[in-house]
Fold these 4 entries.
Entry 1:
Amino acid sequence: MLNPIKLASKNFLSSLDTSLEEFLHILELAKNFKNKDLSIKLQEKVLGLIFDKSSTRTRVSFQVAMSRLGGTTVDLNPTTSQIGRGEPIRDTARVLSRYCDVLAIRTFKQTDLEEYAKWSSKPIINALTDLEHPCQALADFMTIKEEFLDFNDVVLTFIGDGNNVANSLILCGALLGVEVRIACPKGYEPNSLLIDKAYEIYENKNLLKITNEPNTAVLGANVLYTDVWSSMGEENQKDEKEKVFNGFTIDRDLVSKADKDAIILHCLPAYRSKEITDEIFESHKSRIFDQAENRLHAQQALLSCILQ
Ligand code: CP
Ligand code: NVA
């Protein structure tokens, strides 16, 4: 039976907090959980959830994952706890890590997440920040592996905003050696520090391409991925971005230029007829709901490594 290995890093703040071997191990565990080939019971472990932003998938998949592992979750609503009143992170982290065995945090600044990690005696998981969404990327690459069996020669094209989801895809692509092309409007490129980090990791530097040309970025691609144009916290940019992102919708025309067996991914929630047409969202090429389901299996795998 496959046993979860202890990860070298205490925390999972970034996609780069796992080695390539650890990343593949988590995907293998996740597959086993999904196929019901693996059952792990961690007695009385508690996951604390601190979500400064809304969530459906991440929150519920963490709750169900803990339940399946024989543990439980405490959902700390910032508006009804002292977090919303501005209790310093260093105090909250020191208190909660005396009650909980692990904390999953969704917040704005990556530096705030790092502050939690600095003061918490227990592991911290990034449940999304403005910079990264590493739990999402685990499920994304699990879904890609389900489809193509391995990552050899897979071309992943992300069309849209160079946001947290794009950043995590770039870092995982570098780790796995997957060709990643990002097509975004000028001025909306992914984080330049993370791009530099990715180039340092890629053995073949040609495998990462950042472009402003969606039509060339999709040529022959195996996976077309998109996300909302305005992320949580950017609501005031919505109107402006909708103008700038004209031409960056995944539609029939863009899909026709990709590989004929290309699949479509979206981390959800989606705005139909903005970043993706309803026709493509609902098409036979879509693996969007498998991808959403895989959040559960991937996080169950991650937790089983972190909590053992
Ligand atoms: N994809 C994702 O993280 O969804 P939620 O915002 O619903 O958690
Ligand atoms: N980029 C999106 C992802 C939501 C899961 C956001 O940060 O709002």
Entry 2:
Amino acid sequence: MIENNNQIRDSFGSKFGVIAAAAGSAVGLGNIWRFPLVTTQNGGGAFLLLYIGFVILIGIPVMLSEFSIGRRAQLNAFGSFKKLAPGTPWFLVGSLGIITAFAILAFYSTVAGWTLEYFAQAITGKLSHVNDMQKNFADFSSQTYRPLMWQFIIMLVTSVVVFAGIKKGIEKFTKILMPVLAVLILFVAFRSVTLEGAMEGVKYLFVPNWSAVSFKTVLMALGQAAFSLSIGMGTLITYGSYIQKDNHLLRTSTQVAITDTSIAILASLMVIPAIFAFSPGSDVASLSPGPGLVFEVLPDVFKSMPGGSFFSVLFFFLLSVAALTSTISVLEVVVAYLKEELKLSRGMATLIAAVSISVLGVLATLSFGVMKDFTIFEMTVFDLLNYASANIMLTFGALLIVIFVGWRMGKSDFINEISNQGSLKSNLFKGVYFIIRYIAPVAIGIIAIATFFIQGIV
Ligand code: PFF
């Protein structure tokens, strides 16, 4: 245990706890409402191979970099850079992380709130009586109070878990819910692939179609990998600071990445084959990732599926759980910062973080209703937060993090940290460092610049 502010610093109590919490952060709406469609629309197996390549080449090294920064410094994302590179502007990377956390949680809590509404609609049976799913979603999301109420509930539950602390809050919550989530996804995916006609969907998902791959696809694969693994903004620096000194960080990073990728693939098997089985005419290529898929197409699919109302309850429950285990990790970034840098109590830090993020969150939620015509750079507040954080801030964050570890922290400190002061030996350590120092910055750099020019707002 390490002393901090004269208190014993809270930490994860077990290896499984670390994996549950970090995989809980990684597995979220990104896996379920984005990955399946992005994959099918961008070359199926071809996209999948690119994606897996990015996870191995960039995702795991960045995750390991973040864990090692946090565990070495024993501080929040901002404080870690200040401590490891005192008197330099590197703390700005930490500040970028805190701002990104703000932006992500503001729009993510809107969507997380919608999942609760749909869970409620599924459990009360309302969803199975809706005739026009598009209208149902538009009617709900354009309201003022109801979406705000769900967003508020999400922020409240998130705050309660974060307030309870690392071991007694985040670890306990994710240790119970992540296995439940995995079992439910397996169960629903099994139902989906065993439906008649489902195999067409499986084929569409996995058979590589290289002609659909363009440079933009490559950008999307990296953006999706970063968002899905929760890298590039300090979530994993923050969690890393709670990991015990004897944890094998490379192994943990690999396990988290494998879990996240497996769940994304299972989520695709849950979603795409079911759509093919029940709406063979529906053109998967024309669906847009996000609300359309999860809140319009899937409820229709559940309506036609035998036992569909039961599966829709399970589905929206698992979606809410996936969202919540991610929201807590983002809130913790801001709470740890306020607590340690401004020396606030955990309760006060949680309150201030949750209230200030919610103010921005309200604007995101209302982007679908009364504020739908309020645009900045031709985007609603929701779209702007989503675009700026997922496409720009995370990519730049990841770039700066690998440059920090590769060029500032340096080989001996990094290897010392990931080998637990030399007690672990592996030939991989030097290889990962090489990737972090040379390969990852070049690859992420090219993509960061290209993202800016290709889809950029300037
Ligand atoms: N990884 C989450 C998802 O795929 O939905 C989203 C996310 C959570 C992004 C936490 C970033 C983060 F720090």
Entry 3:
Amino acid sequence: MSNQTVRQLAEVVKIPLDRLLEQLKEAGLKVNRPDDIVDEGEKNKLLAHLRKRHGKNDGVDSVDTPKRVILKHRKVSELKQTSISGKSTKSISIEVRKKKTYVKRSDELNPNAENKAVDIQTTDVTTVDAIGKKTNIETKSKSVVEKIDPVVDAEQQKKVLEKKKEDDKERLERERKQRLEASVERNAEKVRKIAAAKQQAATTTTTTEKKKPSYRNKAAEPKRNDKNTKSAVADKGRKGRGGKGKKGRLKGRAAVNPAIETKHQFEMPVAPTIKEVAIPESIIVSELAQKMSVKAAEVIKQLMKLGLMATINQSIDQETAVILVEEMGHKPVIQSDDDIEQEMLSQVVEVDGREHFSRAPIVTIMGHVDHGKTSLLDYIRKTRVAAGEAGGITQHIGAYQVKTDHGSVTFLDTPGHAAFTAMRARGAKITDVVIIVVAADDGVMPQTKEAVEHAKAAEVPIIIAINKIDKPEANPEKVMQELAIINVVPEEWGGDTQFLKISAKTGEGVNELIEALILQSEILELKAPIEGTASGLVVESRLEKGRGAVATILVQKGTLKKGDIILCGHEYGRLRAMFDETSTLIKEAGPCAPVEILGLSGTPNAGDEFLVVKNERTARELAEHREDKHKLSRHAAQQAAKLDEVFAKMAAGETSTLNLVIKTDVQGSLEALRESLVKLSTDEVDVKCVYGGVGGINEGDVNLALASGAILMGFNVRADSTSRKLIAEKDIDLHYYSVIYEAIDEVKRSINGMLAPDIQEKILGLAEVRDVFRSPKFGSIAGCMVIDGIVKRNLPIRVLRDNVVIYEGQLESLRRFKDDVNEVKMGMECGIGVKNYNDVKTGDQIEVFERIEVKREI
Ligand code: GDP
């Protein structure tokens, strides 16, 4: 940025030298030779001149005046809410208006600006006479500080934001002080009178002399440290106070000062209270109002002014909350949720500098139904855990540990994928290794594939147990081949997965399986500290009569002791009693030991973390904080993964992957759909199929979608009733399709930020077939109960069997008792005849839908 000659400048701006000289002349500058130096000021003048010539007169008169850039952004979108049942549809028009004003100043930052700002902070109110002067200084510094205002520059944006935060802090501090001063001023007269009276009585008494410094010191302390930045007036004032027998004016001041300082330091001013409002990552309107001690309606009103329509129970983001709090004259203190929790935790939990020792692997068993998961778990428990115990039978506690000469292995006794994904959905990574059981006489089945995909999605190593090798028809070779196809390749074939042949019935190979697990854990180098306070995860919990909340937990670090105070998700309590997997009362439990504990305030969720904390009060506070956070995250989750928002999020740089969970009616459509959807990936967004399977949408699919922030897609399949509830509760984005092209088109549109099609399908109602009658006139008539929404005549329908679409057609006849009706509402029985379809069976479901045209405003 050093000064250039005219010639150099001409080269830089790429215009002929002659023209530049001409322009310089026109601008009235004294630079008229090619080798003359053009300094910054002259460049600016030239620029101003050129702008003027081009009719852009703004900010030309003085290049030093601010250039204001106002960015306005208006986004209109429409939110469609169709209940899963299709019962009702709501259209909500959302208009988001954003306005940002950037002020750019071209002059350099005054190097003294910072100092001056500091000046103000440290120049406290010391004398009444000083007030006028101080206000002046502050105004001046205000203008200085403003020059540090944001500059529109992508690279500097972060810096600027930080700076802005600081500036805001300063500004608020300044405003606070101004208010204080105002109040001091108002009281000044009064104070002066009192002081004058005091002065008369106490100028020479030693007691007053002794007393004064005692509270004056407190107030003056910070100033002493900052002697250099202190205003001279303050110094004078202090001197005045110290030296008695000086001139009356000073004496007068000396007596006044402490009174004001006392006021300043120990009493609340008459001016409005400025609160420090802690703002977490998102905050509910009512709570924010409470923090500022104002009515929620007031907050809503202010939000409207900011262009945001919010309800009392709505959560608003941190940025908005900060602006709002400032608008309302309070001081926002930005807090991240983790900060709060970390801060609280740091007070109660020991700092982790403990020595780590190798620990047992924690293992989950998954696989297709009837392939022997339960048998394997039972075999291991009976032979390895309960052996030698009186009675031999153990109570089911959700997990148990097996000890061998080489080390221990902890098994989670919750077979099935649902438990695994449910835990994962809560963000818990409890499993170190997954065993996938495949029956040698059956081979790879849908749930085997599902298990593989779940384990891979969780990035947990897999060990394959080829079970039932005692059976004559066992064909382990076939299992290996089938698994290799889905990228689970045995070590002996050059892959990285351990395959073991076992029989859960005879016990053959089970020892080797456990050894393989220990080997795998050595590879993983699993380590944990044994010393110190315990922490870990909840495996399961239940309420038991006479025992209260019973939770099975797995210690991951440290040692858990009876009497410890435990914080467990949103629950807490003192550990009253602890049992191991053989129901033996124990006093201590180390890493990877599953134990059943009594004493919690309620039942925590599987996958919740537990911690030993120092005292019950903090445990309770933390539990409450988590509860709040949980509530908020539920609010936040509602804004998670939505197909409609992919583009907006991409544009905002928030997302670069679009995760999908796809369920289809047949394998063929799954392959086709998966392939074409993944192909839609662009440089900006990666379309990823987290899981694809055949059959209706079940709870596991929903949990997986939740865990991986995925969008659920049903192709000719529907969600079952349990998963429908979960989908509604967690507000997961679910899309049904019946044509592959539609699905592809919708994803494509969402990636490219295009509008939805004009024709959309809406599910109106669902009826369940309770009985089937024959009618000579209509063929098969399904005696139904409308279980959701409304069923109407002459609308298109789909017949679902096991949540898979088996037929699509038209509703021909709709009757209640003997009468033809036009519609039947939920909870009523009716007879439905489907045109050209006679294959209806009891238990089938009939879905009634309509195609609607979407009108939208742009
Ligand atoms: P899960 O549904 O995966 O838990 O399977 P189960 O453990 O309930 O086993 C299903 C059936 O397979 C049961 O009848 C078991 O007795 C049988 N089974 C399990 N493992 C073996 C095995 O290794 N050999 C034989 N022959 N049968 C087995």
Entry 4:
Amino acid sequence: MTAYLPPARFPATRLRRNRATDWQRRLTRETTLSVNDLILAMVVHDGAEPEIPVASMPGSLRYNVARAAEVAAEAQSLGIPMIAVFPNINPALKTADGAEALNPAGLVPAAVAAMKAAAPGIGIMTDVALDPFTDHGHDGLIDDDGMMLNDETIALLCQQAVLEARAGADVVAPSDMTDGRIGLIRAALDEAGFADVSIMSYAAKYASAFYGPYRDAIGSKGALKGDKKTYQMDPANSDEALREVAMDLAEGADMVMVKPGMPYLDIIRRVKDAFGAPTYAFQVSGEYAMMEAAIANGWLDGARVRMEALTCFKRAGADGIITYRALEAARQLGR
Ligand code: PBG
């Protein structure tokens, strides 16, 4: 006679039960991506051609001012909350001191004004940095050894930020990584009557090779002398990112950014956990190029891989993602 044994409860917990059907998966989903999470990264140029393809960013276009305004209206109707504008400056206008950045009749003020007029209900964000305007491709003034001058650069960035606010920018985004710029830009904006203009700081910005195609997009490819390692962060560092973010928040940043995106999800998580501040990821040009080149070759499923990448930013703790694919993602997501 054998003793009765209850059937082995192997395993009592079956996590697959919650994955069995579409409704169960939807019911147990932890992260939801929506159109509200998207910031459209857009490159503008001052020419007559409405759209110019960017070779190293397959499927991505540079717009002239008129077309940029139309695209802004389209982005607004898709429900995208904000557009980040980046200028491709005519090489003839580039100088060592990036003076064109302070031209009130320049490309950025023109684009911002046209976009605001065409789409008053969408936020417009502009970069605060000199690299699209300098002939050496650095984000600020440099000395004879190519070292970026911190305090002298900030004096110009303050003027640039005020000029952008005057043109209608809702958010200014210092992307230069000088020390102390957030506090001084905040003070300059307040003094000029723009206390309501927000600052999204490129707080944890790394000296990354993933920005390569962006140089192509804004026309500084090959122009950059040296690299940006004396001001942007070492990709090997993580504690330092928290110190950068702490500084920028203490100086008055309203939102902080981690850049690049996908290889830096651990940084997003640490920043979000440590500060609980509005935190954004920049899915940069190199990430775009890698994915879109593979999609174009039929090696990746575009519709799926784009959504997966964006969802993973949110899962990591990002409140939103700056992406060159915001229009496509918004169409796919619906409102
Ligand atoms: C410049 C700036 C860069 C990007 C946004 N603003 C490049 C850099 O710092 O060299 C990168 C954007 C991208 O790669 O998509 N201050």
